[in-house]
Design goal:
With 406 residues, this protein is an alpha/beta fold. Helix content is 34%, strand content 17%. The protein contains 13 helices and 16 strands. It has an 8-stranded parallel β-sheet with strand order 3-2-1-4-7-8-13-16, sandwiched between helices. It has a two-stranded antiparallel ribbon with strand order 5-6. A two-stranded parallel ribbon has the order 9-12. Strand 5 and strand 6 form a beta hairpin. Helix 2 packs across helix 8 and helix 10 runs antiparallel to helix 11. About 11% of the residues have low confidence.
Length: 406
């Protein structure tokens, strides 16, 4: 009986709070007019600061943002940052994974309970991919691969084993994006966001860059309204750029600078790219059929990046100017590792500049291509982030240079 009385009292209190405009007796939060978006000024706040008219909750976490997003490639480097933003904004997210539950367990904490659905799919089974998309309003494709996945296969003669390619670079970068785009057209998905690369070019020496371009063209053929996102090289805690130099110095006494490391790159922070994608998700119609280029505030040569990394880590490898064709001899051996640090195709990519299509002034003078700045995302300098994840390569750890920690 006492329990029933307490329950009735709680219900009356809730009803009174709702009549007064909120659970805390304050004024009711006004709904934002349709189509109007208020962007947060810092990345720590939800992107949408005002609730949508059809949104359940106060906006952000523990709310229903009224949009469903399917993500392919969510378990990758960029994917985890994109999913974190979707979870922060209360977006119902459908995550496709080719692995078991351990492959995406790090994504579970990014979403409120019930705000993410995890589905197994095969890139060679279109029906399983359609099951991932389901009733999504927006599809994001982050799938990409820089090396052929190989597996050992039995043979009937000596040496009785050989490597076979299970998933090629061309399949991951061209065929899979094409299949996703075709499904989006067939299933009448409202919007498709395809992540390509600033290095994508049909005449590149790198197969990866060529297939990125081909995949981009196939997506636009199948789904002409797709939004293409073209980032430069990504840096961040799990990157293959700054970490690459540190890992190579940990493994080998000599780190090669391909053709002297003179090629230029303009790295962009992965979190900045993820925030840009999340802002496209917020108003996807505005970017239909358009391109968004993402790049950092400054370009560097690979030689400059190497010295920058070793200045942080304190590593002392020999930086050697080695011609690309010579570096490829070692790359042909290292390419058989599970997640190779170096492949012949990576060497080809390192011989070319990895830059946005035009300088910042050029982007401001045209209206056909958006940049991160157009979406309110300011590019983060590499020196503000790099120390956070490179100091672990120091001998003795983070505190080795401070007194009392020797």
């Amino acid at each position: 009986m006492i329990r029933n009385q307490l329950l009735q009292t709680a219900l009356r209190a809730r009803a009174g709070a709702s009549a007064n405009g909120g659970a805390f007796g304050g004024a009711a939060r006004p709904a934002t007019a349709a189509g109007v978006r208020g962007f947060a000024s810092t990345p720590d706040l939800p992107r949408i600061t005002e609730r949508r008219p059809d949104e359940t909750g106060r906006g952000g976490r523990a709310s229903d943002a009224g949009v469903k997003v399917a993500v392919f490639g969510a378990t990758g480097f960029l994917g985890r940052y994109v999913c974190s933003g979707l979870g922060t904004n209360g977006t119902m997210t459908y995550i496709g994974s080719r692995g078991d539950e351990f492959a995406y367990r790090h994504l579970r904490t990014m979403f409120e309970l019930g705000r993410a659905k995890y589905s197994f799919y095969s890139s060679r089974d279109k029906q399983s991919m359609a099951d991932v998309i389901a009733d999504a309003d927006v599809v994001i494709n982050l799938i990409g691969k820089y090396y052929d996945t190989k597996a050992l296969e039995d043979t009937g003669s000596f040496p009785f084993l050989k490597y076979k390619v299970s998933t090629s670079v061309a399949e991951a970068n061209v065929e899979v994006p094409k299949a996703i785009a075709e499904l989006c057209t067939e299933m009448q998905v409202d919007n498709l966001i395809h992540v390509s690369s600033a290095a994508a070019h049909p005449d590149s020496a790198s197969e990866w860059a060529r297939t990125k371009y081909e995949g981009e063209q196939e997506v636009l053929k199948a789904y002409p309204w797709a939004t293409i996102v073209r980032p430069t090289q990504l840096f961040g805690h799990e990157d293959m750029l700054l970490n690459w130099f540190a890992n190579m110095a940990s493994r080998f006494p000599v780190v090669p600078l391909v053709d002297g490391g003179h090629a230029l790159t303009q790295p962009v922070w992965a979190d900045d790219v993820a925030r840009t994608i999340n802002r496209i998700v917020d108003d996807p119609e505005k970017f239909e059929g358009l391109r968004v280029d993402c790049f950092g505030p400054q370009d560097y040569s690979y030689a400059e990046l190497a010295r920058f990394v070793y200045d942080i880590t304190g590593q002392t490898p020999i930086l050697s100017d080695i011609p690309a064709e010579v570096v490829k001899y070692g790359a042909k051996v290292l390419q058989y590792e599970g997640s190779p640090d170096l492949t012949p195709d990576m060497v080809d990519l390192m011989t070319e500049d990895y830059l946005p299509e035009m300088p910042a002034e050029g982007y401001k003078a045209q209206t056909q291509v958006f940049t991160m700045a157009d979406l309110g995302v300011e590019s983060t300098p590499i020196e503000k982030v790099a120390f956070k994840y490179l100091h672990r390569f120091r001998k003795g750890g983070h505190f080795i240079l401070a007194e009392g920690y020797h």
